[in-house]
Amino acid sequence: MTADPQTASPARWAAPAPAAPTTTPSARRRTAAEIWIVLGLSLGQSGVYAIVNILARLSAETPLADQTATLNASQSERSLLDLTYQVLGIFFALVPVALALYLLSGRASATWRGTRERVGLDWGLDGARPGRDIAWGFGLAALIGLPGIAFYLLGRVVGITVQVQASALDQHWWVVPVLVLAALQNGLLEEVVAVAYLHERTRDLGWSRLWFVVTSSLLRGSYHLYQGIGPFLGNVVMGLVFSWFYTSRWGRNRVLPLVVAHTLLDVVAFVGYALLPAAWKTTLGL
Fold first, then answer.
1. pTM above 0.85, yes or no
2. Does residue 113 fall inside a structural domain?
């Protein structure tokens, strides 16, 4: 009988050993500059725009609760052209993910495959690791999803959350596949950059786990500010859970469970919203 890989080879399932912190001032400056560049090309840029957006919303004459934020908007009235724009948008949004992994692979003796294994973006040939990642992903999605919906509805009632239209695409044959790809893109971009990459680089700078968790969570909340104060707070909580889990003995520095959870949450939000009858949306205030 084949032994359980989780019990037979404990070292195989342990989190990677911490990298030695960058010590020289010039190396620390280069690492800090790299972090700013990666974030400036991706989530940090979105965070700055979201801050400006929420200031504009709060200073507008229309109350925040009466304003709308639209996700996955149509780019053209022509079906194939709209599809082309959607696919291109998803593709180019993933370039910062490739950049972050490429930069991490620049470590001495690091390889592309080794980097993916280090941050848990690989699925081994054995069935245990994919099953474990998927199971944790579903668990995290359930933990975040139901309270997230309740928090959104509460924010709408209190008036600190705008009406979020999760999909404004016209009815085309490709809508559901594109929304699923958009959900996967969000999961990869946010979890790889805001959690896996940021954890590796802040650890290079000698940051503590607490500072990483707080920074990652505030970053996640910042680029959701365009949806209102409620989503900002909700995503900070999500960030605390995800970044803590990633660095815990259960998460083992594997980002794939976070990607699975995030993708599931967005698939439910995007596809569910697109397929929900208009009357239901009105009743639920969506």
1. yes
2. yes
